[in-house]
Amino acid sequence: MKLFFISDIHGSLYFLEKALEAYKKEKADHLIILGDALYHGPRNPLPKDYKPKEVASLLNAYKEKIIAVRGNCDGEVDQMMLDYPMMGDYSIILYNNRKLFLTHGHIFNKEHLPNLCENDVLIHGHTHIPVAQKLDTIYLLNPGSITLPKGNNPNSYGILEDDLFEIKDLERKIIKSIKL
Questions:
Q1: Cα–Cα–Cα angle for 148, 150, 153, nearest 5°?
Q2: What residues pair up with 140 in beta bridges, in sequence order?
Q3: Are the C-beta atoms of residues 116 and 99 closer than 8 Å to each other?
Q4: Which cofactor is essential here (predicted)?
Q5: What is the pTM of this model?
Q6: Which residues are bridge partners to 121 per DSSP?
Q7: By the 8 A CB rule, do 175 and 167 touch?
Q8: Which SS3 state, helix, strand or coil, does residue 101 take?
Q9: CB neighbour list of residue 84: distance below 8 Å, 6 or more residues apart
């Protein structure tokens, strides 16, 4: 199973289209959205091609393939626009005898870890900075942001396949990777 991770779309139709092109080229089985899909948020600038209604419509076309969690910029009004559930603060996927704890990162993160077992994985967005590291007995992953990257990082997404997590820029160049 191949999983495709994006976070922090923030209503940018331009960058969502770029990410979905990569999703198709990667031939991933599922699209995992780690929050902040439609709204740019009061602390962020308006992103390129800011069109939340069109972003919602485009994401709805993939509703059968999407697993999503709520970000700090997501609200009930966003859920009204989307045809897949996205209001949970976290979701859990069982993957190759380990738990993947999916969340946005504003509640659960490196400083406030959920209950995880050895070799489980915390995957979140929110910081807009790509991370692929082992933290004590668990893995901490962040695909970065497809729309508003920080720290001089490129717009990026994550891929998990065969216990290898890769963070790639929108041209599919590997930025970081880690074997789980």
A1: 100
A2: 122, 133
A3: yes
A4: a divalent metal cation
A5: 0.97
A6: 100, 139
A7: yes
A8: strand
A9: 59, 60, 63, 66, 68
Q: What angle do CA 167, 168, 170 make, to 5 degrees?
A: 145
- How many Cβ atoms are within 10 Å of 76's Cβ, its own excluded? 8
What span, in angstroms and rounded, lies between the C-alpha atoms of 180 and 177?
Answer: 10
Could you give the residue ranges of the DSSP H alpha helices within 27-98? 52-60, 76-81
- Per-residue pLDDT reduced to its tens digit, 119-166: 999 999 999 999 999 999 999 999 999 999 999 999 999 999 999 999
Q: Give CA–CA dist 119/124, Å, rounded.
A: 16
Domains by residue range for the chain, with CATH: 3-179 (3.60.21.10)
The residues facing 102 across adjacent strands are: 91, 123
d(CA 125, CA 31): 14
Residue 180 has, within 13 A of its CA and on its CB side, a CA count of 24
- Record the tokens describing residue 16, joined without a space: 């969502």
CA 105 to chain centre: 10
